[in-house]
Each structure stands twice: as structure tokens, then as C-alpha cells.
Amino acid sequence: MDRETLQQALPDYFAPWVQALGLRVEAFDSDSVTLRLPQDAQLSRVGGMLCGQAMMAAADTAMVLALINHFGSFKPCTTVQMNTSFLKPLSAQDALVQARVVRAGKSLAFGEIDIRGAEDGKSACRATTTYALL
Questions:
Q1: N or C: which terminal CB in the chain sees fewer CB atoms within 10 Å?
Q2: Is 32 exposed, middle or buried (0-12, 13-18, 19+ CB in 10 A)?
């Protein structure tokens, strides 16, 4: 797997509104992918805080890319469950969204996502996910 392939998956497999988030592949290893979600007033609430909906969309997207990385190619899948905990507001900085595949079988895949500030490194959101592999 390479960064270009993972980045190209965004326009290949995701809706235009997901592409509008401006996600960029920051890093990847054997079981995880990290995306950068740029700070944007369009994604912010009062006080410049990144909204939860943007974090959840970025988390879901990062996990699909982590699955692409895990399997070596895109496999059709759908989110079955996503449990999200918002730990603290994220303001005035980009977000780093690290998705890690915990287990991937023949019909289900499980993952964990950590969203942290790109500048301060503090976790702002944690999520766990389950995907059906179609």
C-alpha cells in the first residue's frame, strides 16, 4: 500500500460532501491510517469548535481507508455500528484522525479511532466501529 493509493480512494469511493472535508492521508502502517482534517470555519460551531458530525464522518472515512490498507484493496463494506465519545472540544487546530483495524474477518471488521489535536496531541474524540464486509 502507498499514500497515493489511499488518498485516491477518497474521490474513488466517497460522496462529494465527504471529499469536501479536505481529508489528507498523513501516515499509515500495517494496521492503521492517520488522516488530517483541516480546521475549517464551515466545520465549526460557536467558538470555533470542530463539530461532532465532522469528527464522526472523518472517523468513519478513516476506518474505511484503514480497511483498504489492511486488505490491500477496497472491499465493499457498510458501517453497522459506531460508538463515539467526545472527550473535549477541539478548536483552533487541525485534527489527526487515526483509525486502527482491531480485527477483520470474512464478514465483519472491528476498529478503533482516536481523533486528537494536530498541535497539542490531546485526544478529543474516541470511537469504536463495526463494519459488515459485503
A1: C
A2: buried
Contacts of residue 41, Cβ cutoff 8 Å, sequence gap at least 6: 48
Query: Model-level pTM?
Result: 0.96
Query: Residue 60 and residue 77: Cα distance in Å, rounded?
Result: 11
Q: Residue 47 has which C-alpha cell? A: 467558538
Taking the C-alpha atoms of residue 96 and residue 105, their distance in angstroms, rounded to an integer, is 27
Q: Which domains does the chain possess?
A: 3-133 (3.10.129.10)
- Amino acid identity at 117: G
Question: Looking at this protein, which amino acid is placed at residue 77?
Answer: C
Q: Would you tell me how many other CB atoms lie within 10 Å of the CB of residue 119?
A: 11
Q: Shortest CA distance to 58 belongs to which of 10, 97, 114?
A: 97
